[in-house]
Amino acid sequence: MDLKICGITSHDELDIVDQEGASYAGLWSGIAGHPRNLSDKSLTELAERCQNVAPVAVCVKRPVAELWNLIRETRVRHVQLHGFNPPRDIAFLKDRGVTLIKTVHVNDDGESPVDRLVDSYRTAGCDIFLIDRFGGRQAIGSSGVCLCSRSVARWLDRLEGARVWLAGGLTPDRICGLPEDRRIEAVDVDSAARMACGAIHRKAARMLVLAARSPNLFEAA
Ligand SMILES: O=C(O)c1ccccc1N[C@@H]1O[C@H](COP(=O)(O)O)[C@@H](O)[C@H]1O
C-alpha cells in the first residue's frame, strides 16, 4: 500500500515525509483558522521542495477555480476535495488534468453525508475515493479515530471498481490489520505521524511507511 501523510506545514516535516518514503504529502489550503492551513506562498514552496513524494493539495471550502489558479504553475497535480463539494467541482479539475481524490466522510454508524453524490462523483471523473471517519461537520478530518471494519468493508463494496484510499485513526498496527486483498490502494494518516499532537516525527513516519509497505511486518515479529 502507498502512504499519504497529511497536514505538512514546514520544510522539516516535508523533508521527513519525503526522506522516509511516503508516497504523498498533504498540503492544506482553504480551511481558514485551522492550524495546518497554509498560505498560498507556503503551499507553493512546500510543493516545490518535494523530491520523491507527490504533493497533494487538500481543500475543504476553497473555490476550485481559485485553487486551480494557485496550483497550475506548481508541481501539484493531485487534489483532495475534503468536504461536501458538488460533482461539478470534480469535473472542473478533471478537465484540467488533475488527479482527483474525493473524501467520502463516513460516520460511526457507517453512513455518509455524501452517499447520494457518490455516483455523480464517479460520473464526473473522480479518480480516487478516500474513505475517512466523520465525527460531525465540525470534525471532518484528522479525527484520530478509526472506522469499524464492518463499515470499511461495506464502503469497499459500495465503491467496487474504484480506486480507494482509507483514513481515520490509522496507526502502524491498524494498517497491519487491514484486509490484504489490495482493494485499499493507499492509507492516509495525520495523527499517528505526530508525537503528542505536535510536529511530524521521523520515527513515527518511518513506522507508518514500514507498515504500509509490509502489512504483516508486526504480526510476524
Ligand atoms: O491533516 C490534517 O491536518 C487535517 C486537518 C483537518 C481535516 C483533515 C485533515 N486531514 C485528513 O484527516 C484524515 C486523517 O486523520 P487521522 O489520521 O485520523 O488523524 C485524512 O483524511 C487526512 O487527509
Topology:
Layout: E1 2-5, H1 11-20, E2 24-29, H2 40-49, E3 54-59, H3 64-71, E4 78-81, H4 87-95, E5 99-106, H5 118-124, E6 128-133, H6 149-158, E7 163-167, H7 172-176, E8 184-189, H8 202-213, H9 217-220
Parallel strand pairs: 1-2, 1-8, 2-3, 3-4, 4-5, 5-6, 6-7, 7-8
The structure holds ligand LGQLAAA5.
Residues 6-7, 26, 28, 34, 36, 58, 82, 103, 130, 132, 140-144, 167-170, 188-192 line the site of ligand LGQLAAA5.
Pfam families: PRAI
GO molecular function: phosphoribosylanthranilate isomerase activity
Domain N-(5'phosphoribosyl) anthranilate isomerase (PRAI): 4-192
Describe this structure in words.
With 221 residues, this protein is an alpha/beta fold. It has a single domain (2-213), classed as TIM Barrel, CATH 3.20.20.70. It contains nine helices and eight strands. It has helices at residues 11-20, 40-49, 64-71, 87-95, 118-124, 149-158, 172-176, 202-213, 217-220, and strands at 2-5, 24-29, 54-59, 78-81, 99-106, 128-133, 163-167, 184-189. An eight-stranded parallel β-barrel has the order 1-2-3-4-5-6-7-8, surrounded by five helices. Helix 4 (87-95) links the parallel strand 4 (78-81) and strand 5 (99-106). Helix 1 (11-20) runs parallel beside helix 8 (202-213) and helix 4 (87-95) packs parallel to helix 5 (118-124). The chain is globular. The model has no long low-confidence stretch (mean pLDDT 94). The protein binds the ligand O=C(O)c1ccccc1N[C@@H]1O[C@H](COP(=O)(O)O)[C@@H](O)[C@H]1O. Ligand LGQLAAA5 binds at residues 6-7, 26, 28, 34, 36, 58, 82, 103, 130, 132, 140-144, 167-170, 188-192. One of its GO terms (molecular function) is phosphoribosylanthranilate isomerase activity. Residues 4-192 form the N-(5'phosphoribosyl) anthranilate isomerase (PRAI) domain. Keywords: Amino-acid biosynthesis, Aromatic amino acid biosynthesis, Isomerase, Tryptophan biosynthesis. Pfam families: PRAI. It catalyses: N-(5-phospho-beta-D-ribosyl)anthranilate = 1-(2-carboxyphenylamino)-1-deoxy-D-ribulose 5-phosphate.
